[in-house]
C-alpha cells in the first residue's frame, strides 16, 4: 500500500511539472509573437526620406516612435531592403493603375463600373485578375482597365508582382 501512495505522489508531482512547463512554453510563444523593438542605444534599420535603407539608434524619441508605429522599423538591413523592394513594387502598381485609368476616377457608387484587381491564388501559385463592382478592400489597387494584370506583368514583371502578393513581414 505504501508503494501505491508513493506512486500517486510521483504522478501528482509529474503532473505539476508538466503544467508548469506548459505554462512557461505558452509565455515564450506569446513573447515570440510580440513585434521586435530595439533596446535603448541598440541599432535598428528604416527607410529614410530619400528612399534608402538607413540605420538609427533607439532613443525612444518621436522619430523612433513614429517609425515603429508606421512599421518602418526593422531588425536587420536585409529586412529593410526587402520591404523597400516590396513598397517600390506596390507604388509602381499604383502608378500603372492610375496611368491606365487615364484620369477616370473609380466610382464606388457606380455598381455597373467594373473595377479590376490583381490577386494571388495560393493554391495554383498564379497571379489572377478579378473584377468587383461594389466591394472595396484595404490596401488593394483597383484599375478600370480589364488587361491590368497583363500590363502589370509587362511593365513590372511577374516575379516582382508575385513577391509583392506573397510578402510576409517578420
Count of DSSP H/I helices:
5
What is the CA–CA distance across the termini? 56 Å
Flag low-confidence runs.
Answer: none
The total strand number stands at 5
Query: Radius of gyration from the CA trace?
Result: 25 Å
Mean pLDDT across every amino acid position: 91
Strand order of the largest sheet: 4-3-5
Q: How much helix is in the residues?
A: 40-55%
Backbone structural class: alpha+beta
Order of helices and strands: HEEHHEEEHH
Largest sheet: 3 strands, antiparallel
Strand content: 15-25%
Assign an overall shape: extended
Describe this structure in words.
The structure is a single chain. It is extended, with a radius of gyration of 25 Å. The longest helix has 32 residues, at 2-33. The protein is 48% helix and 15% strand. The chain has helices at residues 2-33, 62-69, 77-101, 148-155, 158-166; strands at 43-47, 53-57, 115-121, 126-132, 142-143. The chain starts with a helix and ends with a helix. It has five helices and five strands, in the order H-E-E-H-H-E-E-E-H-H. The mean pLDDT is 91. The strands form two sheets. It has a three-stranded antiparallel beta sheet. Strands 1-2 form a two-stranded antiparallel ribbon.
Amino acid at each position: 500500500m505504501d508503494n501505491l501512495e508513493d506512486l500517486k505522489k510521483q504522478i501528482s508531482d509529474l503532473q505539476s511539472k508538466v503544467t508548469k512547463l506548459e505554462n512557461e512554453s505558452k509565455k515564450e510563444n506569446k513573447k515570440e509573437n510580440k513585434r521586435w523593438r530595439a533596446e535603448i542605444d541598440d541599432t535598428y534599420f528604416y527607410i529614410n526620406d530619400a528612399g534608402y535603407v538607413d540605420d538609427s539608434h533607439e532613443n525612444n524619441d518621436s522619430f523612433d516612435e513614429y517609425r515603429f508605429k508606421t512599421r518602418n522599423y526593422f531588425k536587420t538591413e536585409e529586412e529593410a531592403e526587402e520591404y523597400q523592394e516590396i513598397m517600390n513594387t506596390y507604388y509602381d502598381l499604383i502608378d500603372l493603375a492610375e496611368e491606365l485609368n487615364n484620369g477616370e476616377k473609380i466610382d464606388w457608387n457606380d455598381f455597373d463600373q467594373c473595377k479590376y484587381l490583381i490577386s494571388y491564388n495560393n493554391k495554383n501559385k498564379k497571379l489572377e485578375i478579378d473584377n468587383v463592382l461594389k466591394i472595396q478592400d484595404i490596401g488593394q489597387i483597383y484599375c478600370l482597365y480589364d488587361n491590368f494584370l497583363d500590363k502589370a506583368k509587362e511593365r513590372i514583371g511577374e516575379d516582382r508582382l508575385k513577391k509583392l502578393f506573397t510578402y510576409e513581414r517578420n
